[in-house]
Design goal:
Layout: E1 3-11, H1 15-28, E2 34-36, E3 43-53, H2 57-68, E4 74-84, E5 92-97, H3 101-117, E6 130-136, H4 143-151, E7 156-162, E8 164-171, E9 178-186
Antiparallel strand pairs: 1-3, 1-8, 2-6, 4-5, 4-7, 5-6, 8-9
Helix pairs in contact: 2-3
């Protein structure tokens, strides 16, 4: 049975994505051992599903369509840099969401509920609206990255129009992941 590594997300593009790329470029200069997310791959994950049989993708698209039914387009703003688990032990580097965070949380909840109703596993962790920009290859990204994150804790990176939810496949390669949109479900 053919499967595809799958996640449901909102793409991030336009001027805000370029502002994020500028911040990433500043962090790259530190030389930390971090796997950076390429600008073309920027997205906010609403739900990660893992390996899904290809035959189940239409049912998944139907569930996401049901989840977003009646939901209208909106604008979110990217603001602030941070890290999980915290700045001192930065492993996952992210940019925050200010305006629109509650709408994203509502979308993630509706997507999780609808996909569970369609027979998919529930989300394995609570949704926290953030845009991952890099992952440390070691225990921590280091003090240089922590300093830049702290200096940019309130940085405003711009607005992003949320017009659709995508179901993506993720193919892992040695040069980085390749994301392909399997379905685009537009908001009203």
């Amino acid at each position: 049975m053919d499967t595809v590594r799958t996640f449901i997300a909102v793409p991030v593009a336009g001027p805000a994505a370029h502002s994020v790329a500028d911040l990433v470029d500043e962090m790259r200069k530190v030389g930390a051992s971090v796997k950076w997310v390429e600008t073309r791959n920027l997205h906010l994950t609403l739900k990660f599903l893992g390996d899904v049989p290809l035959s189940r993708i239409p049912a998944l698209a139907g569930a996401v369509r049901k989840a977003v039914e009646g939901d209208t387009k909106f604008e979110m703003t990217l603001q602030g840099a941070g890290a999980f688990p915290d700045v001192a032990r930065a492993r996952t580097l992210w940019v925050g969401v200010d305006r629109g965070a509650q709408r994203l949380a509502g979308l993630a909840e509706a997507v999780d509920r609808a996909t569970v109703d369609a027979g998919f596993a529930p989300a394995d962790k609570a949704f926290r609206p953030h845009l991952t920009i890099g992952r440390a290859r070691e225990r921590s990204a280091g003090v240089g990255i922590s300093r830049i994150i702290s200096e940019n804790a309130d940085i405003y990176l711009g607005p992003v129009d949320v017009e659709a939810v995508h179901i993506y496949s993720s193919k892992l390669t040695p040069s980085g992941p390749i994301y392909t949109s399997l379905a685009e479900i537009p908001l009203e």
